[in-house]
Amino acid sequence: METKIKTCIIDDEQPARETLKGMLTALCPEIEVVGEASDVVSGLKTLRQHRPQLVFLDIQMPDGTGFDLLNRLEFSNFSLIFLTAHDTYAVKAFKYSAIDYLLKPLDPDDLCESVHKAVKQISDKSATSLSGKSNSDRRIILKTTESIYVVQVSDVIRCEASGNYTTFHLTGSRKILVSKTLKDQEEILEPYGFLRVHQSHLINLSHILRIDKTDGSTVVTSDNVSVPVSYRKKEALLKKIEEM
């Protein structure tokens, strides 16, 4: 691949992070480390900021585990390699679709093999995206107080703000309420054909049935709901529709 792979390292031991960065620099020139963190809280912030393609993730950290981090993260569209000094978590790790599970101290050959797998997976994802099939296959994780949902992006009709909560309106008259702001959802979904048309509404452009031509201030979505369009967003909406 011509462009480097954006990578984040989350490990509570700084020497371990430095060793891994050194090995990646020497052995895997296709990798670019854009962020690192030492625990679950800082790891979440780092991943949300950088949106990496590849993540090296420690399992045992001071404020929780790598699994806790993944359960709190709103997206999972990156390749994942676990790092640990213990082999007791291997089965659980692969339930999170990890590419590999590397034991410390890292073996250079094992690291190179894992990175090669990641490069292939990322390359395959890019090829799928270029073919125009990605959005129908894309999935996001929605977490409520009681459940964790895996939802296809194409099933999301619109998102509606309610304070610090967001209601996802899905096909089949389904609704899921998550404790994240609409701004958080906008950052995740905008690359997949969503547009914030109003302070309280984020819509999937592929689910638009019609736009009110009289003043352009209303959009009707595929669930037959009229969604208001703010004055500032009218031009952006019409431009997006023309590009479809």
Estimated structural class = alpha/beta
Order of helices and strands: EHEHEEEHEHEHHEEEEEHEEEEEH
CATH topology of the largest domain: Rossmann fold
- Detail the poorly predicted runs: 128-134
Highest-level CATH class of the largest domain: Alpha Beta
Shape: elongated
What do you see in this structure?
The longest helix is centred in the middle third of the chain and has 23 residues, at 108-130. α2 crosses α3. A five-stranded parallel β-sheet has the order 2-1-3-6-7, sandwiched between helices. Strands 12-11-10-14-13 form a five-stranded antiparallel β-sheet. 34% of the residues lie in helices and 33% in strands. It is of the alpha/beta class and 244 residues long. It is built from eight helices and 17 strands. β15 and β16 form a beta hairpin. The chain has two domains: 5-130, Response regulator (Rossmann fold); 136-243, OB fold (Dihydrolipoamide Acetyltransferase, E2P). The protein has helices spanning 14-27, 40-50, 66-72, 90-94, 108-130, 134-137, 182-189, 234-243; strands at 5-10, 31-37, 54-58, 60-61, 64-65, 79-84, 100-103, 139-143, 148-152, 156-162, 165-170, 174-178, 194-198, 201-204, 208-211, 218-221, 226-228.
